[in-house]
Amino acid sequence: MDKLTLSKNWHLAETEEEVKATEFEFLLWRLYHGFVRWQEDCENAVNSSDLSAGELAVLHIIGMKQRPKTIYEIAQLLYRTDFPNVQYSIKKLLKLELIEKSKKTVRKSAAYQVTDLGLKDIEAYTIARRKILIELFSQETELEGIIDKMLKLSQVYEEASRIVVSYQDIS
Fold it and tell me: Taking Cα atoms as reference points, which of 56, 46, 149, 153 lies closest to residue 96?
């Protein structure tokens, strides 16, 4: 029987290095969307909630260290620049009474804190995460090396972004 030969070449992948980079980026998309699906499925299972992964991230960041956070701090911790979407998430979390406006302001900006209902949501999610995801991660013996490589790769993308913005006439 003849071996099936697959062509991996296309407009993003003409050389061997481009093929490798493209395969990596496809896996990165799969990893990201698997992560999002896990978060949303876990939240739905334990809290019967339809919060998106982005909204969950905002909720958990606000709950971090049980200290009020401003929109700027939330965006900075999540490495986001889409302030209108962060604001939309905050409005939804406020409406669901998972967070509330803090009585304290931070540098003249409104700050938000988790409510008791929000704490219950976070705790249920954390317990399920610990029982399921952390247990699965404990079986991964190379996690520290993976984390180190992901950090280095995030720096590659950050530098590539800086270059493309700085030198827009790349042709």
Answer: 56
